[in-house]
């Protein structure tokens, strides 16, 4: 009979152990980092940070820009992240305005290009690199169907592209939102929405992530992908028959930036990570993927990256993008979210 | 009866009651409270104030969301209409013919069970996508959208429908056929007056099961749905994409309705099905019939070939360097660190999660079933536990997952520290698959004569000793069945856990969704391949182990 009791107690113990197995017994400080960096960048970034800041362990939570942004906002009463790293500056501006970021200026921040520094109010975020939305154009598929390459955004509304274009969903993807915001800024609100109405007729699908369009174009699954520049360049380097085109009206862009989350329990470790972000060494790492980085002394040219990118960057007001984010996304969702629904 | 014996009996009853109460508490926590959280979330605004049906009103007034509801309904109905007749014919071939290779065909039909649902969607993209080699077969239609969803769901649901149909067709009274033959009834008349009516409850049950599986499946429409919105992807978009928990809860509740409806229909049907077969029934033995067997063999070859082809396509694609421009062999797609932050870690996390689910799930389920089935005290409590155990059957994984999000995330909940941990994933998975495991355990326990308990009682042996020394050893095959069932399902589930994983606990099935999202379809296929092979290896191990266990512990079954 005693054995029976013992068995019961043992079962309870096993249960309790299972329950607590989640507890972490690492010596280093585990820093939870919310990020929208590309998946294949996460491993090199983690290794680099942990090598330079030895007492920190990076634990990534990665998703597309829009998802990370809304997740962060949803958790604002009870933040789960210590650091936000590699998220669109427009999102960080939004967080800053809602007083969700810790005031901290990384040690090397003053050495960075002025555009990559937080200039408004308390210093919270630091820029890392800039990324553009480009047109990835599959030349092999275009040759088959005898379609000539687009040179302007307007070209994409031509009937020969019907059902052949993919772009990211702006609510989930940072690349998608910056594109929509750029059209509205370049063309003006009314003409911008009119343009998107026309473009919508040619869109096959709005993808969840900003990298999927260029990948799908690279694989010939679609002819045209409006997407994340760096992904297009990487696919081209892998042998995909695509050209990266920057339309003549100018390309939308955003900055990836880093900030410390207000209320983090690991403030000391978070500051070290923020310091790392502003170092030249870190910027050299960014330069492996991006053409435009924050540090003025780092010159980078990732293979197959379009040479005229910096010249084609459209005028962009981050403050406007952050302030109008919710309104623009609501309007966009109302107009285009249900592609298959009867119109 | 001596005073001593009655004292022992009392103590035993107290222990049993206590254990039952503990189990009831656990199940309320794992199953009932999350569901209640979902319900209450759907009538709150984002600040947690009660707003009545305002969220539902907003749902109805959003045209895109209502369109998804309609899309979900017609797609699910169509899949049921396609799959159930095919499964019926396939099951007919397996149970009512002398076709060769019936065991093999059964095994082949079960293969989709070992893969996450979205594997068939990935395969379809390779076959019928814009660069697919059979694209022309679609006559210009796009695989992205309802066509792809219906085809992929048909593959995914086929084994589920087939299992029900095989069970239904196996229950046949041979005497009816003998009488029909003696009376010279035509074959088609026998089919329509004997065979079909005999299987009608199975047919109804299968239709509802398939409908529910499709309407709540998230993986397939996510991968191949294109811009064709359905309820399950809406829930994901609302919760993960826009963190709009209230609207997500509304969608979850809408998804719950067909499932609950199906559950009650199924229960009614089961009751009737039992009454169909009387004690004097004679099992039906099909007679050889060359023409019929050949036709059925041809049919099974086509269906079986399609199922194997779907699986094979994804496996093959996972070894291709750069579809469609460079078809050379590569292992690069298995270097998951290039595609996902967790790399192979996600696969290991999945193994760990599935292992823990199997261990804890089997322990709780089997001991729980024993308490319900074999102990005497507190009948009301036992009934309540049984009810809780049957509840998950009516709750789709996606809905349960949503309930867990709201429950664990609630600011008042001290269990919030488990948010995103393996503990929550295991608890959710155990709850999600509780019912089938519970039914398996109860069925096994019902086969064991209640005399064991009576004899134990008269020998003053308490029930926990009987459980350990008699019940568990003779039930080992069933225990193993439960463990393997939980393991395989924990490995392949997507919809329940997609909302629950946290940093460091991303599962392989979720990694597949994420890799597909960023366009790395080949890597997604590679991860799916890993899951398939692991699940199949475990199943084969199970079969081998079953032989050993049966040989050692089941000798008593033979006379």
Walk me through the structure.
The complex is a heterodimer of chains A (343) and B (559). With 343 residues, chain A is α/β, with parallel strands linked by helices. Chain A has 2 domains: 157 residues, Periplasmic binding protein-like II (D-Maltodextrin-Binding Protein, domain 2), CATH 3.40.190; 150 residues, Periplasmic binding protein-like II (D-Maltodextrin-Binding Protein, domain 2, 3-Layer(aba) Sandwich). Chain A is 42% helix and 18% strand. In chain A, strands 1, 2, 3, 4, 5, 6, 7, 8, 9 and 10 form a 10-stranded mixed β-sheet that branches. In chain A, α2 links the parallel β1 and β2. In chain A, α6 crosses α7. The N terminus of chain A is likely disordered. With 559 residues, chain B is an all-alpha fold. Chain B has a domain of 267 residues: Orthogonal Bundle (MetI-like fold). In chain B, strands 1-2 form a two-stranded antiparallel sheet. In chain B, β1 and β2 form a beta hairpin. Chain B is globular. The two termini of chain B are 36 Å apart. Chains A and B meet through α1, α2, β2, α3 and β6 of A and α3, α11, α14, α17 and α20 of B.
- Cα-to-Cα separation, first versus last residue of chain A: 73 Å
And the CATH topology of the domain at 51-317 in chain B?
MetI-like fold
Indicate the multimeric state: heterodimer
Query: What strand order characterises the main sheet of chain B?
Result: 1-2
The major β-sheet of chain A equals: 10 strands, mixed
Number of helices of chain A: 14
Outline the low-pLDDT stretches of chain B.
none
What Rg of chain A is obtained from the alpha carbons, in whole angstroms? 22 Å
User: What is the domain tally of chain A?
Assistant: 2
The CATH topology of the largest domain in chain A corresponds to: D-Maltodextrin-Binding Protein, domain 2
CATH class of the domain at 51-317 in chain B: Mainly Alpha
Mean pLDDT of chain A: 88
Distance between the termini of chain B: 36 Å
Spatial shape of chain A: globular
Helical residues, percent of chain B: over 70%
Instruction: Tell me which protein chains meet in the greatest interface and how many residues each side has.
Output: A-B, 66 and 61 residues
């Amino acid at each position: 009979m005693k054995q029976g009791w013992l068995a019961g107690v043992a079962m309870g113990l096993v249960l309790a152990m299972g329950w607590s197995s989640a507890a972490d017994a690492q010596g280093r400080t585990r820093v939870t980092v919310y990020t929208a960096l590309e998946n294949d960048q996460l491993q090199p970034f983690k290794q680099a940070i942990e090598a330079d800041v030895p007492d920190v362990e990076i634990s990534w939570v990665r998703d597309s820009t829009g998802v990370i942004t809304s997740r962060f906002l949803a958790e604002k009463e009870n933040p789960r992240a210590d650091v936000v790293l590699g998220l669109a500056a427009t999102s960080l501006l939004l967080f800053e305005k809602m007083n969700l970021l810790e005031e901290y200026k990384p040690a090397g921040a003053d050495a960075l290009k002025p555009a990559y520094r937080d200039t408004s109010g308390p210093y919270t975020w630091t820029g890392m690199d800039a990324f553009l939305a480009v047109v990835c154009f599959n030349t092999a598929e275009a040759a088959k169907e005898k379609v000539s390459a687009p040179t302007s955004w307007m070209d994409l509304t031509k009937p020969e592209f019907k059902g052949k274009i993919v772009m990211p969903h702006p609510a989930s993807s940072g690349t998608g939102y910056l594109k929509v915001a750029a059209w509205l800024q370049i063309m003006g609100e009314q003409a911008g929405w009119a343009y998107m109405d026309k473009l919508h007729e040619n869109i096959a699908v709005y993808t969840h992530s900003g990298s999927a369009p260029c990948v799908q174009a690279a694989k010939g699954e679609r002819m045209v992908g409006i997407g994340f520049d760096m992904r297009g360049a990487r696919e081209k380097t892998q042998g995909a028959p695509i050209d990266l085109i920057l339309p003549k009206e100018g390309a939308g862009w955003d900055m990836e930036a880093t900030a410390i989350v207000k209320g983090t329990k690991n403030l000391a470790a978070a500051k070290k990570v923020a310091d790392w972000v502003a170092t030249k060494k870190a910027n050299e790492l960014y330069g492996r993927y991006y053409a435009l980085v924050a540090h003025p002394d780092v010159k980078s040219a990732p293979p197959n990256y379009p040479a005229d990118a910096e010249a084609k960057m459209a005028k962009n007001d981050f403050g406007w993008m952050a302030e109008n984010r919710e309104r623009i996304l609501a309007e966009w969702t109302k107009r285009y979210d249900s592609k298959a629904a009867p119109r | 009866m001596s005073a001593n014996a009655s004292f022992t009996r009392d103590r035993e009853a107290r222990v049993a009651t206590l254990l039952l109460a503990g189990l009831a508490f656990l199940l309320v926590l794992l199953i009932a409270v999350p569901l209640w959280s979902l319900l209450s979330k759907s009538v709150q605004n984002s600040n947690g104030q009660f707003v009545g049906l305002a969220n539902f009103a907003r749902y109805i007034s959003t045209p895109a969301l209502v369109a998804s509801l309609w899309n979900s309904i017609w797609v699910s109905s169509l899949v049921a209409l396609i799959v159930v007749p095919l499964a019926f014919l396939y099951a007919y071939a397996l149970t009512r013919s002398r076709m060769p290779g019936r065991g093999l065909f059964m095994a082949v039909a079960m293969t989709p069970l070992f893969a996450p649902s979205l594997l068939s969607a990935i395969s379809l993209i390779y076959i019928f996508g814009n660069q697919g080699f059979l694209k022309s077969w679609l006559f210009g239609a796009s695989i992205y959208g309802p066509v792809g969803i219906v085809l992929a769901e048909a593959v995914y649901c086929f084994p589920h429908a087939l299992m029900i149909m095989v069970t239904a067709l196996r229950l046949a009274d041979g005497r009816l056929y003998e009488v029909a033959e003696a009376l010279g009834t035509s074959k088609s008349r026998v089919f329509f007056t004997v065979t079909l009516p005999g299987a009608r409850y199975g047919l109804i049950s299968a239709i509802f099961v398939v409908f529910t599986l499709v309407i709540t499946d998230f993986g397939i429409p996510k991968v191949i749905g294109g811009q064709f919105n359905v309820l399950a992807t809406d829930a994901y978009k609302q919760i993960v994409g826009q963190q709009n928990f209230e609207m997500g809860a509304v969608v979850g509740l809408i998804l719950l309705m067909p499932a609950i409806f199906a559950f009650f229909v199924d229960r009614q049907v089961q009751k009737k099905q039992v009454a169909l077969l009387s004690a004097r029934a004679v099992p039906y033995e099909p007679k050889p019939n060359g023409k019929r067997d050949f036709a059925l063999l041809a049919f099974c070859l086509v269906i079986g070939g399609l199922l194997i082809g779907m699986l094979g396509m994804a496996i093959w694609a996972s070894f291709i360097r750069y579809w469609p421009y460079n078809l050379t062999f590569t292992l690069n797609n298995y270097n998951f660190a290039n595609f996902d932050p967790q790399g192979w870690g996600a696969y290991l996390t999945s193994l760990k999660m599935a292992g823990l689910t199997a261990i804890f799930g089997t322990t709780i389920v089997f001991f729980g079933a024993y308490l319900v089935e074999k102990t005497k005290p507190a009948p009301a409590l036992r009934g309540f536990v049984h009810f809780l155990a049957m509840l998950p059957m009516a709750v789709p994984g996606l809905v349960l997952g949503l309930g867990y999000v709201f429950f664990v995330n609630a600011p008042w909940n001290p269990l919030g520290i488990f948010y995103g941990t393996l503990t929550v994933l295991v608890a959710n998975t155990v709850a999600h698959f509780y019912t089938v495991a519970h039914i398996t355990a109860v069925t096994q326990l019902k086969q064991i004569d209640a005399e064991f308990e009576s004899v134990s009682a008269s020998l003053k042996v308490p029930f926990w000793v009987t459980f350990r020394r008699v019940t568990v050893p003779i039930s080992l095959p069933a225990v193993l069945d439960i463990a393997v069932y939980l393991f395989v399902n924990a490995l392949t589930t997507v919809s329940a856990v997609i909302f629950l994983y946290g940093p460091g606990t991303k599962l392989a099935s979720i990694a597949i969704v994420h890799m597909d999202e960023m366009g790395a379809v080949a890597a997604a296929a590679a991860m799916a391949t890993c899951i398939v092979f692991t699940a199949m290896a475990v199943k084969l191990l199970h079969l081998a182990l079953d032989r050993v266990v049966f040989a050692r512990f089941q000798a008593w079954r033979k006379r």
